Input
Amino acid sequence: MLWPGETARFTFRITNKTNGPIHCTGRFDVIAYGTRVNVGDIWTPHVFKIADEGSIPVRVDLEARGSTDVTVVPRIPQRYGGYALIADLGPLGRAFAATLVRAVKPDGGRVQYPTYALDLPWPFEMSEAVAVLFQKLGVKGCRMEAGYYPTTASDFQERQVDFNQRLEWAWKHQITVLLTVESGGAPMPLGRPRPWLSPDDVMLDTKSDYAWLPELDGDFRKWCALIAGSYGWPKGPVNAMELWNEPWEGISISGWGADMMRYRDLYTSMAEGIEDARRTTGVKVLIGGACSSTNTRDKLFCDGSDRFLKWLDFVSIHYQPLAADPALEKMWVNRRSPYGPVRVWDTESWIANSEDRVAGVIASMRAQGQSRTAGIYHGNVYTPEVLQDRPRLGIVQAWSPAAAVAATQKFLGQRPFERILFRNGLPWVFVFGPRPADTRDVSSRGRARAPSPDDGTVVVLGDLGAIYERNRTLFRQITGLKNLPYVAAARQALAALPPDAPEATRKALEAALDAAFVVRGASLILEDGGREFVLYDFYGNPLPARGGKIVVPLNGQGYFLRTRGRPGSFTRLLRAIERGRIEGYVPVEIIAHDLLAPIEDHPTLRLTLTNVLNRRVAGSLTAHLGNLVLAPGRERVILAPHETRDVRLQVRGGRSVPSNTYVLNAQFDAGADGMATHQEPLHVNVIARRT
Output
């Protein structure tokens, strides 16, 4: 992990696995690379080559079964992104050797409640090198497993050594820690984990329940007080504790199989232990859970009371894309507590698993009201390896998404989300204000400097449908004008599929249609304010303006816009965006509504039109509805910037059909601004009144 200007030295051990000597001249190639995930498949990053960046020659002379160490100092470009070292020994072949990133240098300092956190690895993978990487990336928060083990056990202190070491590494490298508390080997009923039973009461090979014996709950409270009191903020890195990872009802991936009553008992013990630590040591440690808003409601509020509200400082959620509903829960939002309203912390929604998705995912999560985000599976950011124990020594390799994480931390970080600039149009423009004063460097007098109003950041994203399921998004029908032939071809291929086609074939064509919709070839063009405004890609690389104009590509990737900090510049940047020229979108969204009266009663067809552009759009609307006659058949419509308007067309002729299905074909021709089309089967939506 390199900051600007830094160099790297790599030592590789090359082993001859053959029975003969090796004498050859080889090289280590430096290759700039990136990763991307396919639309609709968030889990699998695909590596692609960006450019060759030179090579380092090496000489290898090895006896049979011998080994040698080779040290290389590659020249890594100053451009932010991912780089791979590939060993090439000629006729002996090529092999992956290492990966690294160059990334923007972050802002330093500890933060009590980071807005972004990344998971630490499993304890057996953990070394201080991971904490060093977090600090170099500017990642100031993490989720870490903590296993309860009775404090009365003779080997308790011995078991705590490694756990305490991990917390000390976190504190040293300015990382605050959310502890996810689970079982650490505490005695259980039957003396073993309990899986599901067959109808014949035989234990099945399923996930099991690791919840400990109820008589240990008092000691569990003591353990929580000990951990929070010893390592709680501000004396240590622990800022929050939650009970169990994904404690779903019935069975869980993380060893929870007990019922919600048992969960409430354990949660009470944890909360009371943390309260004990707050009173006796003055620490500020949050209490929370339970990995989804539904699970939290089921477990803590199932009886209709607010008994647990005082102990819900944060609700952790997993995989609720565009559905972070706790931010709208009035009881939680309006909670009165020294620790404020219930915070919404996303602790595991791994949907940004390639670097091109990071800025858009994190910005949109923050816009949903999440005060802490995850978004990225840590294994796609770094790979740790432990080389030795006692003392623990490890190495960490950073993958290309790490550079995007660093850029997002640098440009967003603790900056508060303020608003979406275009409330009823495209592109998505997320506005983040300046960093709060307590996250900035202190002045020479030891006082926190006031935040600059021109320290804000704007994230521009052309199409949310590239990073979320399209049907969850607003303006889901809007694509790029250059996309239209690809969308038409994908729809035609899907429509031609026979009903008995293999499911895999159908899913592949549906995925192709989703991919065809992702906007391409569109742009936001704005004045650069006399070089006052700067555009950055998702790695943090500045992109040059041309002729006094900044051209922001509008696609499924997030781009950063910032200023050079002159007084009033951020306000001028927002004004320039509002006045910018948006090109390449289908200009109008058409939403059709079912008919609300029988055909013979000549009902009205209601079409809702939205101008997604920031300028006036005028065009001609035409519509055909099955075998029905609509009036008027063509209508001139003028829409103000971002205006939504209903247009009503009356059914003047035609007869109802037994299928109650009438295919709509609507078209809005805006001339030079482009064409919008919409096709959808509509119905007469009437409930017959019966006596």
Notes: The first helix runs from residue 128 to 137.
